[in-house]
Design a protein that fits this description.
This protein is of the alpha/beta class and 414 residues long. It is built from 17 helices and seven strands.
Length: 414
């Protein structure tokens, strides 16, 4: 922020309220508490504008700061600082001290602003993160189904590579609903029916009623999550291909990056031009080591793990995939690193290298080219489907349903 700051406001934001402290260079201090609702945020905005604050600062605590930021940003500068950086300066801990301390840091330009994305991009990123949450929950339920089958000694993995594919679900549904072996085999595809003998050996036993009930519940949940994930993916790819189509194509030209990987990177990084180099991007993603110096001696520690956890996770997954691509320069890099630092660290090193590569490609509007002759197969792109827009009444119904569920959970817990 250019120019001298004469008056600043620091916010300590909580789920239901916030503490605001205004400090001026003359030493004057004002403190107020506001509810974190529409009226409270409006009162906060009127207060800081009437007091002619030069800047408002807060920590990036959860997403509690988002509605406050959106309300104030058109009226005066708002700095959202990294909570870990700001805590490095303080030692005492109360809400009043926190808000005053943040105001003091802002007054002296000691708050490094975080990158705050535009509202429509934050909404897109929320879709991507919710999809990841649902995928992980689906994986948990699939693991539970595996545990149920293992306890009943149904070793379907011996005959199917994916027991949750079309044929696998037909078998699981047949087991849980009490169908006989012949009926189950009849419902399978011709290729799988060739393994009828092995399937009979696996299914030649009875499943307990309890296990059948639990397995059916798992299948119902998996099916429901599949539908919700598909709905989210429509929203994700509508935005990605309409708003960032060129970047999607560039990212998908890199070994190991598919549609979901490209869409996730765009969601988490947004504008690659915000970084002056690929190394700056890697640093923002937390893929660089901590550096300690004492008496001219340097020591590199573990990676910093700053920035987006989701971006760091997807880059690690991409690196795992790229390390398996034949005739790829990235695989050669991974194999060299693996010999000296081991598999786990080599994957992180490859993830950092991929981060610097995609920064170069997007900022220079280039497609990935591999000197070793690697050719990436064609990626099947999703069709863009217009999303359904909910009316006000439908949105109220959805919110009412959420509150009804929350009330039921509270009653059951008591």
């Amino acid at each position: 922020m250019e120019g001298e700051i004469n008056k600043s406001c620091g916010l300590d934001i909580h789920k239901r309220f916030l503490i605001a402290t205004i400090l001026s260079r003359s030493g004057e201090k004002q403190l107020q508490r506001f509810d974190r609702d529409d009226d409270g945020i409006l009162n906060l905005k009127n207060w800081v504008t009437s007091e002619k604050c030069d800047v408002v600062a807060c920590e990036s605590t959860s997403d509690f700061w988002v509605p406050i930021y959106d309300s104030l940003i058109n009226h005066l500068p708002v700095i959202v600082g990294n909570a870990r950086d700001m805590k490095a300066f303080t030692h005492k801990k109360t809400d009043k001290i926190d808000s005053e301390f943040i105001a003091k840091l802002a007054l002296n330009k000691m708050v490094q602003p975080s990158r705050v994305f535009p509202k429509n991009h934050r909404e897109y990123r929320s879709y991507v993160r919710l999809r990841l949450t649902l995928v992980r929950k689906r994986t948990d339920i699939k693991n539970e189904a595996h545990a149920i089958l293992s306890s009943e000694m149904f070793h379907l993995n011996d005959v199917l590579t994916d027991i949750f594919g079309k044929n696998g679900r037909a078998i699981l549904s047949g087991i849980s609903s009490g169908k006989n072996v012949d009926q189950i085999i009849e419902s399978l595809s011709p290729n799988v029916r060739k393994k009828a003998v092995q399937i009979r050996e696996v299914l030649d036993r009875e499943i307990s009623q309890s296990a059948a009930n639990r397995l059916q519940i798992c299948l119902n949940l998996i099916k429901h999550l599949d539908e919700e994930i598909e709905t989210l993916e429509k929203e994700i790819f509508n935005y990605a291909y309409k708003k960032r189509n060129k970047e999607m194509e560039i990212l998908m030209s890199v070994p190991g990056i598919g549609e979901i990987g490209a869409a996730t990177l765009i969601a988490e990084i947004n504008d690659f031009n915000d970084f002056s180099s690929g190394d700056k991007l890697a640093s923002w993603l937390g893929l660089v080591p901590n550096v300690y110096q004492s008496a001219d001696k340097y020591h590199n520690g573990r990676i910093t793990k700053r920035g987006s956890k989701v971006a760091r996770w997807i880059l690690t997954q991409i690196a795992q995939a790229a390390a398996r691509k034949k005739n790829s320069k990235l695989k050669e890099f991974f194999n060299r690193k693996k010999k000296s630092i081991g598999h786990a660290k080599a994957i992180i090193a490859l993830a950092r290298k991929i981060a610097t590569i995609i920064w170069h490609l997007i900022t220079n509007d280039e497609m990935y080219e591999d000197e070793t002759g690697y050719q990436k197969g064609e990626v099947q792109k999703r069709k863009i489907v217009e999303t359904e827009i909910f009316s006000v009444d439908e949105r109220i119904t959805i919110i009412s349903g959420i509150f009804a569920i929350m009330g039921k959970e509270e009653r059951e817990s008591t």
